[in-house]
Amino acid sequence: xxxxxxxxxxxxxSLAISLKESGLATRVxxxxxxxxxLDKAVRRRLIDEDLPLEQGMDVSDxxxxxxxxxxxxxxxxxxxxxxxxxxxxxxxxxxxxxxxDLVKDHPRRGRFVACHPMAGTEFSGPExxxxxxxxGKTCVIVDAQDxxxxxxxxxxxxxxxxGMTFTHLDRCAxxxxxxxxxxxxxIASFALALTVLEKEKDEQRIFELxxxxxxxxxxxxxxxxxxxxxxxxxxxxxxxxxxxxxIEQLARFRTQLIKRDYDGFYERIQRAxxxxxxxx
Amino acid sequence: xxxxxxxxxxxxxSLAISLKESGLATRVxxxxxxxxxLDKAVRRRLIDEDLPLEQGMDVSDxxxxxxxxxxxxxxxxxxxxxxxxxxxxxxxxxxxxxxxDLVKDHPRRGRFVACHPMAGTEFSGPExxxxxxxxGKTCVIVDAQDxxxxxxxxxxxxxxxxGMTFTHLDRCAxxxxxxxxxxxxxIASFALALTVLEKEKDEQRIFELxxxxxxxxxxxxxxxxxxxxxxxxxxxxxxxxxxxxxIEQLARFRTQLIKRDYDGFYERIQRAxxxxxxxx
Lengths: 280, 280
Known about the structure:
- The structure is a homodimer.
- Chain A is 54% helix and 13% strand.
- The first copy, chain A, is α/β, with parallel strands linked by helices.
- The first copy, chain A, folds into 2 domains: 2-169, NAD(P)-binding Rossmann-like Domain (Rossmann fold), CATH 3.40.50.720; 174-278, 6-phosphogluconate dehydrogenase C-terminal like domain (6-phosphogluconate dehydrogenase C-terminal fold, Orthogonal Bundle).
- An 8-stranded mixed β-sheet of chain A has the order 3-2-1-4-5-6-7-8, with helices on both faces.
- In chain A, strand 2 (27-31), helix 2 (35-43) and strand 3 form a beta-alpha-beta unit.
- Chain A starts with a strand and ends with a helix.
- The interface between A and B is large, with 91 and 91 residues.
């Protein structure tokens, strides 16, 4: 079958690799606002060819919308206007409320399946696409009851063939849980990078003294502003909620240091250690 | 030569592996307050034998002090009281001011070389020891002018044979830079774990939705309270200084979200991205 990928970056490109490797896609069409990205994707053999949006859409059995979130808000209604009943449209976006509110009354809403494959790296663009990005990870299917059953089946075939398992959430719960588990770690990491860049004026020292621990904590700070600002914009309220909690947790460590309450500090580190049980 | 390791955990145990593999140590003696740790270290063949502290000290050419920081404060003066002029004592502690202030007038101060190998993982104990922990990393030698030149040479032989390169700092600069680059990432990670555990009451959701990005940012939150509380206690003022900056950076993201200043948010993410240049 022919898979059309709109936005051929880290996620779109990695999915293209998986779908070709699994044999589910016989042909992968790339569509992208940037001709530079399309050229890279062709050179890296992520896609078989690139086509203009409407042309690429018409020849695809399945369409995967994998642009940044703000472009999705713009594209999704236009794609649904044009979609045929034998086609399935899947997105891979990190927030769902605004997107799904936008198309909730669209006559062809059923052809659309809102998905969030919980996978990624701190890199972006077609050069960042890698095989096996999705293997063993979870794909969240959001508000599945609003999609046609055959469209949901198709979405599951796509992500199964990339090695994913599934969970279901409604759009509010999805955005809430993603703020808690994913979006806050990006803000924490951006803030840590800014902290160190602000305090440590001697870049050579950072280079010398940064152990792998620092590198790990700050890894997400390399993530793209083009991708993340639209996510924070669309999930603003949930992100603010969890950001308040995070600042509060840091302020408590601060108070404990000021008061020299090292027993309390010890007890809270032990509580933080419990994350290990959940993360395997 | 015989190397005695006092505190046979992640760092002491990993160093023992490297020193035996490189051939620098013909025999490794383990000393530890915990007989359980010693038994594990013998079973894992990290050490050739375990001995009581004074006995093990007397038969060692080089002694490596690798306990948590609070035990170091207790042990270092006692070890210097007993050390012979043909022996070298090295520590691997994460803070240096209190430790070095404590022994600055000791008549055998010259036999001691204060070292901080910038390497580690979130795990602890002899079971966490791994080969190649130090390879390619930096070892900071602190206040080298207060150590006998032959003792410094010996310390360099030890860490060179583990694959490390060297940099020099005085004790105040060391503690300051480590607060900036290492200690704050641990607090940030502990606080992030507590944030997520507080907000996300549904542990199964964390398990399902946590991508590798979250896992990376929160990795250090698995670190041991026994190791880290003494570090925060001894480096309290510098840690408070950088923690204030970190809370301020997060508060700025918060203000930008509240004001919907997404251009400002974008600009600050791009600034955070600059950490990439420094971290290779």
